[in-house]
Design goal:
Elements lengths: L1 H13 L11 H16 L1 H4 L14 H6 L16 H6 L16 H12 L20 H4 L17 H11 L10 H13 L5 H9 L5 H10 L2 H14 L17 H14 L3 H10 L8 H10 L1 H4 L10 H17 L18 H12 L1 E3 L14 E2 L3 H8 L1 H23 L4 H5 L15 H21 L5 E2 L2 E3 L5 E4 L7 E5 L21 H8 L7 H14 L20 H13 L4 H9 L12 H6 L12 E2 L2 H11 L49 H5 L18 H9 L1 H14 L3 H9 L5 H14 L1 H9 L2 H4 E2 L1
Antiparallel strand pairs: 1-4, 2-3, 5-6, 7-8
Helix pairs in contact: 2-6, 9-10, 9-11, 12-13, 14-15, 14-23, 17-18, 20-22, 24-25, 24-26, 31-32, 31-34, 32-34, 33-34
Length: about 775
C-alpha cells in the first residue's frame, strides 16, 4: 500500500492526463464510457454533498485519484492494482461496488481501459477530502449556546424573570408551601438526609424574618452538604472504585478522589479552580504540601476514564475522557466527532484529535488488567526524597523492568500483525525491521518473564501513599484516526481547544501536555458554556429539571432553555460571586419560586402541563442514596464516614480475568456516597433504585417504577432492620414513630388507624408501614 500510495501521488502530480492536454479521443472516451458509469452508479454515495462512504469522492479528477480511507482508488496504467477496478469486479468479498448490483461487463471493461490509458479526466474542479472540515464556524456561532453570556442586569431576579414568562401566558404561581414542608424539602436538597422532628418544630416556631436564610446557612455548613452535592458531581464524572476493563480491576486509591470532591464542595472551592485542579492539578503551583496533595488527587477526574480490554486500549480510554469532558464540563457531545465531523454541532474530527493529543501526552494511572495484574504509574503523594528513601535501589530496578516491558509492547505494536500466524512466520514491520522472535509463544514467554520479575519487585517494595491520577507523559500531537480506527492515520493535528470556542493552540514551545492551557480555556469566564452548564445542574437538583432539560447536551440535539434570560442571569451571578456554588444555592433557595407548594391548578395544567414555566414546585421521589440513608437515619443506624480504602483483596492475590472478573459488595452502614461502586457489576441496591451508571456520565438519572422495588420495600432485610430500629427508638409510641419517620405528628384519623394496626400486627409492622409509605419516599 505504501508503494501504491507513492506511485499514485507521483502520477497525480506529474503524469496525469489533464483537461488541457488530453490525447485525441480521450475526452470522447471519458464522456461516453466513464462519466455515465460514475454518475449513474457511484455519485449517490461518493459525491460532494453526500455521505462520502469510505471517505471516497468520485466527482472530480483530483478526488478520484486521491482515493478514500483505504488509499488511492486508481493506480494509473495498472487496472489490476487499482482498488476501483477490484471493487467493481467483485474480487474482494469485503469491497464490492456498487453494493446493490454489479456493473455490466461492458461498463467494467470501459473503466479498465480508462485506467490503462492513465485515467484521462477533463474534470478540473477541486473537491476537498471528506476529512477536511466543511463546518461553517461563523454561522455556527449564531446558535444560542455559543453566544456570549448576556447579563440581563443585576437589578433582575429569579422571581421577576419567571413571573415575566408566566404573564405572557396569563398564568400565576400557586401559593407558598407550609414551613414544615419547606424545611423537609430544603434539608433533603442540601444534605440528602431528612430533618429531625426537633429541627422541624424549631423552624415552624421561628417566625423571625431571617429564620429561613439561617436554616440554609446551617445546612450549607453541615458536612452532610458536601456528601450530598459531591455525589451529584460523582454522577457527572462517572465515579467508580473499579477500572471498567473486562476483568474490572479494583482501584484502592479511588476513594481519595471521592473524598476530595466531597471536601471541595464543603469548602466551596471556586468552581473555576475546582475544574483547573481536576484537569491540571499536577501542573499548578501550590503554597503548601497539603495543597499539592489535593491537586494531585484531583487529577483522579481524568484517571476515572474507563479502561478496556485485557490490556490497555488507550484510544477507547481517550474517547471516554473526551466524551466526559465534553458532556460534563461543556455540555457538548464531543465524542461524536471521533470518526467524522459531528453531524449536528460545530465540532470537527480535527477538533477531536486536537484535544486527544493533549490527553495522549499525559500518563494515566493503571489499576491493572488481565495481561498485567498489578497497578502502575500511580501518582506519588510523598516527596521524591521520601519515595527514594522508602523504595531504595529496587525503585531503579523497577524502572528498568518497566522500560523493558514498554519496549516489548512497542516492538509488538510496530508490526501491527492481525494474526498469530503472521507473526509466527516472521512478519516485518513497516520500517523493514524483522520480527525477532521465532514464534509468538516465545514472545509471550518473554513478556510473562518480565512481568513476573516486575511483580516480584512490587511485592517487596514498601508501599508509599499514592493517588489514582495523571501525570505528564511525552508531549506530542496526534494524527486523525480515519473513521476512528487507530491503525488508519491521517494528517497530524496540533493540540488546541475547540475551534467553535476559540481554537486556542497549545504554544509551539510548550514542553508539557497542554492540560494546563486546556484547564484555563475551559474555566475562562468568557467561555460561553462552562458557567451556563454548571448553574443549570444546580438548578436541576433544586427544581427537578434544568432550565435546559438536557443537562449534558447544549447542542442542536439538546433542548433549548425554557428561560434563556434567567440562565444567563444566573451564569453572570455565578461568575460575579467568584464561581461560588454555595452562593448559587442561596440565590435559588431564597427565591419565591423555590418555596412554592407542589399543588396543581387546573388552568395552569391546561396551558403548561409539564410546568416548564415554573408555576409550582414539583413533587419528587427520593433518589437511591436518599432512600438508603433515610432508612439508616430513622433507624438510628447511620454510621460516620469510613476511613481508608475499601477492603479489596490483597494486591499480591490479584489474578482477575475476563472469565473470573473482580466482584465485590461490602456491607457498611455509612452514607451511600461511601459505598463501593463497581462498574461491570452494579451494586444491587443502587441498580434497583436507578442509581447513577458508573460507566458513563449521568446528567439526569432515569426514574423507574418496578415490581422489584415494591418487593424490596416489603421484604428486604434492610427495611425490616430499619423498622425494628425505628420501633426501638420510638419506644412503642405511635406519635414518636411519626415524628422520627416523617418529621411530623399524626392526624387524629392517622393516630386511630395506627393504634389499631399496632394492636393487630405489632409495632414493628406499623413501623414498616411508615417506611414504605409514599410520604417517606417523596419530597413535597
Amino acid at each position: 500500500m505504501r508503494f501504491v500510495l507513492c506511485n499514485s501521488f507521483a502520477l497525480l502530480l506529474g503524469g496525469t492526463a489533464l483537461a488541457a492536454d488530453l490525447k485525441p479521443g480521450d475526452l470522447e472516451f471519458f464522456e461516453k464510457r466513464v462519466r455515465p458509469v460514475l454518475v449513474d452508479n457511484c455519485y449517490e454515495c461518493h459525491s460532494t454533498g453526500k455521505k462520502a462512504r469510505g471517505g471516497l469522492l468520485l466527482d472530480s479528477r483530483e478526488a478520484t485519484l486521491r482515493g478514500g480511507d483505504t488509499g488511492p482508488s486508481v493506480v494509473l496504467g495498472d487496472p489490476a492494482k487499482s482498488l476501483l477496478i477490484k471493487a467493481v469486479k467483485y474480487v474482494d468479498d469485503d469491497v464490492q461496488m456498487p453494493p446493490k448490483h454489479r456493473l455490466t461487463p461492458e461498463q467494467i471493461a470501459g473503466l479498465e481501459e480508462w485506467v490503462r490509458r492513465g485515467a484521462p479526466d477533463p474534470r478540473d474542479e477541486k473537491t476537498a477530502p471528506p476529512s477536511v472540515s466543511t463546518i461553517d464556524f461563523v454561522a455556527a456561532r449564531a446558535f444560542w449556546s455559543f453566544q456570549p453570556v448576556r447579563d440581563p442586569g443585576r437589578d433582575k431576579s429569579i422571581d421577576g424573570l419567571v413571573s415575566a414568562k408566566l404573564k405572557e401566558k396569563g398564568l400565576a404561581q400557586v401559593a407558598l408551601a407550609d414551613r414544615g414542608t419547606l424545611i423537609r424539602r430544603v434539608t433533603f436538597d442540601l444534605t440528602g438526609l431528612p430533618p429531625t422532628a426537633e429541627e422541624v418544630d424549631a423552624f415552624v416556631r421561628d417566625r423571625a424574618a431571617d429564620a429561613y436564610p439561617r436554616l440554609i446557612e446551617r445546612l450549607l455548613a453541615s458536612p452532610a452538604y458536601g456528601e450530598r452535592w459531591g455525589r451529584h458531581w460523582l454522577d457527572v464524572v462517572r465515579y467508580a472504585d473499579t477500572a471498567g476493563d473486562n476483568s474490572d480491576y479494583p482501584i484502592p486509591q479511588a476513594y481519595l478522589y471521592r473524598d476530595w470532591v466531597i471536601e471541595a464542595f464543603n469548602r466551596d472551592i471556586p468552581y473555576d479552580q475546582f475544574l483547573r485542579m481536576q484537569l491540571a492539578g499536577d501542573l499548578l503551583e501550590t503554597s503548601s504540601p497539603e495543597a499539592r496533595r489535593d491537586n494531585l488527587i484531583a487529577t483522579g477526574y481524568i484517571a476515572q476514564s474507563r479502561r478496556f480490554g485485557v490490556a490497555p486500549v488507550m484510544h477507547l480510554t481517550m474517547e471516554d475522557t473526551l466524551d466526559n469532558l465534553g458532556k460534563g464540563l461543556l455540555g457538548l457531545t464531543i465524542g461524536c466527532a471521533r470518526c467524522h465531523d459531528h453531524k449536528f454541532d460545530p465540532i470537527s474530527a480535527r477538533d477531536y484529535y486536537a484535544l486527544y493529543g493533549i490527553f495522549a501526552s499525559s500518563r494515566y494511572s493503571f489499576a491493572g488488567a488481565e495481561k498485567n495484574n498489578r497497578p502502575k504509574d500511580m501518582v506519588s503523594l510523598v516527596t521524591k526524597d521520601e519515595l527514594e528513601r522508602a523504595q531504595g535501589p529496587m525503585a531503579a530496578e523497577l524502572k528498568v523492568v518497566d522500560e523493558a516491558i514498554e519496549e516489548l509492547l512497542a516492538d509488538k505494536a510496530a508490526f501491527k500483525f492481525e494474526s498469530r500466524e503472521v507473526a509466527t512466520k516472521g512478519g516485518t514491520a513497516p520500517e523493514g525491521k524483522r520480527w525477532k522472535y521465532p514464534s509468538v509463544k516465545e514472545y509471550d514467554n518473554a513478556v510473562k518473564a518480565m512481568n513476573k520479575r516486575r511483580f516480584g519487585l512490587l511485592d517487596k517494595i514498601p508501599e508509599t501513599e499514592s493517588a489514582y491520577g495523571v501525570s505528564e507523559g511525552t508531549p506530542r500531537n496526534e494524527k486523525v484516526q480515519i473513521r476512528g480506527e487507530p491503525d488508519r492515520l491521517g494528517e497530524e493535528v496540533p493540540r488546541r481547544f475547540l475551534e467553535i470556542l476559540g481554537g486556542q493552540a497549545v504554544p509551539a514551545d510548550e514542553k508539557g501536555s497542554g492540560r494546563r492551557q486546556l484547564a484555563a480555556w475551559i474555566a475562562d469566564a468568557k467561555n460561553p458554556l462552562t458557567a451556563r452548564v454548571m448553574v443549570n445542574r444546580i438548578w436541576q437538583h433544586h427544581f427537578g429539571e434544568g432550565l435546559v432539560r438536557t443537562p449534558n447536551d447544549f447542542g442542536k440535539q439538546g433542548r433549548r432553555p425554557t428561560h434563556p434570560e434567567l440562565l444567563d442571569w444566573l451564569a453572570s451571578r455565578f461568575v460575579e460571586s467568584g464561581w461560588s456554588v454555595k452562593a448559587m444555592h442561596r440565590l435559588m433557595l431564597t427565591s419565591r419560586t423555590y418555596q412554592l407548594a407542589s399543588t396543581d391548578r387546573a388552568k395552569n395544567l391546561a396551558v403548561d402541563p409539564n410546568d416548564e414555566l415554573l408555576w409550582k414546585w414539583n413533587r419528587r421521589r427520593l433518589d437511591a442514596e436518599e432512600v438508603r440513608d433515610s432508612l439508616l437515619t430513622v433507624a438510628g443506624k447511620l454510621e460516620p464516614k469510613p476511613t481508608g480504602a475499601h477492603p479489596f483483596p490483597a494486591k499480591n492475590t490479584w489474578g482477575f480475568t475476563q472469565h473470573h472478573p473482580y466482584t465485590g459488595e461490602y456491607a457498611t452502614r455509612a452514607r451511600s456516597v461511601y459505598v463501593m461502586q463497581q462498574r461491570i457489576r452494579r451494586h444491587s441496591f443502587f441498580g434497583l433504585f436507578d442509581g447513577a451508571d458508573p460507566n458513563a456520565t449521568t446528567g439526569a438519572r432515569p426514574q423507574s417504577t418496578t415490581a422489584l422495588q415494591a418487593l424490596f420495600a416489603f421484604n428486604d432485610p434492610m427495611v425490616h432492620e430499619a423498622a425494628e430500629g425505628l420501633a426501638k427508638r420510638a419506644k412503642n409510641d405511635v406519635v414518636q414513630a411519626y415524628r422520627l419517620a416523617l418529621a411530623r405528628k399524626p392526624s387524629a384519623d392517622e393516630l386511630q388507624l395506627a393504634r389499631a394496626h399496632v394492636k393487630k400486627a405489632g409495632f414493628a409492622s406499623f413501623a414498616r408501614v411508615l417506611l414504605v409509605s409514599n410520604e417517606f419516599f417523596h419530597v413535597e
